[in-house]
Amino acid sequence: QVQLVESGGGTVQAGDSLRLSCATSGRTFSSFVMAWFRQAPGKEREFVATISPSGGSIWYADSVKGRFTISRDNPKNTVYLRMNSLKPEDTAQYYCAAGYITGAVVTANYAYWGQGTQVTVSS
User: How many CB atoms lie within 10 A of CB 87?
Assistant: First the structure.
């Protein structure tokens, strides 16, 4: 069983930055594709970014490209999401996910999920 625990969320003003972390249990972290998704109230969960097991391949949603950076530290079993130039429309619950398909951007391709961390951006 794999457990994912997100942290680093909070309330910030537009233009500020945050770094989310997702710590995972188990010894198989380096074999997982990792991703971040987000879900705003009343909306479906949407893809934000994904990173391959080695970290060599990365994909972003168009809405965050150039502002967000996903990275991973395999020895620490942790994936990060650095968020710069935050906008009110980035307000959402952010979820970490683990799966096996490189480049996957849909929730169905991820087998394991964290509980989420809230990010609120005020204007």
Answer: 14
